[in-house]
Design goal:
138 residues; mainly alpha; two-stranded antiparallel ribbon; 4 strands; elongated
């Protein structure tokens, strides 16, 4: 009886740990998701919107200029010219990096950030931050 109870508790705790790891984005599902989506048509409106994003991918954080599109981007437009460039864009990207470092992920709230969302899940995860850091260091 004790062995059964111990086994059940062990399975329960392993399940609980795996669920928490998945929520914290410690498990990288991007490879599986990419292989499942290759050769298939996108089925959800959210995914099709992500694949047709109009935001250009920045070559470097200091040379790219983006039009301000929403309230999230507006808070980074320090000179209020309606565009994010140079240091404003670097500040936005560094805040996203800090959020991912603190929380494990960051919600995509901008077309600029959406261009870094490799798997189209609506979040920037730790493995997607690498590209942001590469662009910021150029």
């Amino acid at each position: 009886m004790k062995k059964k109870l111990t086994l059940i508790m062990a399975v329960f705790f392993l399940f609980l740990i795996s669920v928490q790891a998945a929520q914290a984005q410690l498990i990288d599902y991007s490879r599986r998701n990419r292989s499942n989506n290759q050769g298939q048509n996108t089925t959800t409106a959210n995914t099709s919107n992500r694949t047709t994003a109009t935001a250009p991918k920045p070559k470097s954080s200091t040379s790219a200029v983006f039009e301000v599109q929403n309230k999230f981007e507006k808070k980074y437009d320090l000179n209020r010219d309606g565009k994010l460039q140079g240091e404003e864009l670097t500040k936005l990207l560094s805040d996203v990096v800090k959020e991912v470092e603190n929380d494990g992920r960051s919600v995509v709230m901008s077309d600029i950030i959406e261009s870094y969302d490799a798997n189209g899940d609506g979040y920037i995860s730790s493995y997607e931050v690498r590209r942001i850091l590469q662009d910021m260091n150029k």
